[in-house]
Amino acid sequence: MKTNSNSMQRMSLSSKRYQEKGVLKSILITDCERLRDTIQSGIDEEEFDKAVQFINESRRLYILGARSAAYLSGLLGYYFKMLFDNVIIVDANSTSETLEQIYNIQPEDVMIGVTFPRYSKRTICALQFAKNHGARTIALTDNMQSPIVEYADCRLLAKSDVMTIVDSLVCPLSVVNALVTAVALLRKEEVEKRLTAMEALWEEYDVYNRSVK
Predict the structure, then answer these.
(1) Residue 68 phi, psi (nearest 5)
(2) Is 156 helix (H, G, I), strand (E, B) or coil?
(3) Positive or negative: CA dihedral 185, 191, 113, 126
(4) Mean pLDDT of the chain
(5) Dihedral (C-alpha) 33, 34, 35, 40: value to the nearest 10 degrees?
């Protein structure tokens, strides 16, 4: 199965799938196709709304993605930390360290697990642990056959693809953007106050380049 192919098999696949010339357009077209697939038959809006509700009601929000998915979970955590407190990005290099970081998870908490082929055992184990301890669980993955789905109260399905040694995560990134935006709109007044304070802080400490008009 191509989703479980190792790196050398993926490289071999890419040499057949793409030519040296035209790689850019081919990759962009493939990403567009996966976005259309996600819109037409992927993510369920009711599941998305439920995930937004879970996040909004959470006492603490844990976010975990390993390997290439770590960048998605990091971006999700970066923006959610701007919106509210008690967001924990689980950052560990082993299953034991991961479980140590989430050992105190409670039923009032929510955990988001992000994993795509080849699925991370560490992320699957952590979501199982969270569910067994009564926390609400959200899986961001590619299909209902994903091994993380079994431990998810809410399933956000975004198509991915194997291109070369690179996993295409354009669709999951769009879902991340939508989640952050939906929660921000739900907490509009609170978010506006926080962003106003942050803008003042960034201005005071000269965080951004202001030379461009």
Answers:
(1) -65, -25
(2) strand
(3) negative
(4) 88
(5) 90
Kindly give, in sequence order, each residue whose CB lies less than 8 Å from that of residue 143, ignoring residues fewer than 6 positions away.
Answer: 157
The single residue listed with the structure tokens 């960034």 is 202
Helix (H) or strand (E) run with residue 121 in it:
helix 121-132
HSE, side-chain direction, 13 A CA sphere, residue 172: 28
Asked if the peptide bond before residue 187 counts as cis, ω within 30 degrees of 0, the response is: no
Token output for 86: 């008690």
Q: Are strands 154-157 and 61-65 parallel, antiparallel or unpaired?
A: unpaired
Residue listed under structure tokens 């008690």: 86
| pTM of the full structure | 0.88
Cα 195 versus chain centre, distance: 23
Which residue, 113, 108, 102, 111, is CA-closest to 142? 113
What CA–CA distance (Å, rounded) separates 46 from 154?
10
- For residue 5, the model assigns a pLDDT of 54
Q: Do 88 and 170 form a contact (C-beta atoms < 8 A)?
A: no
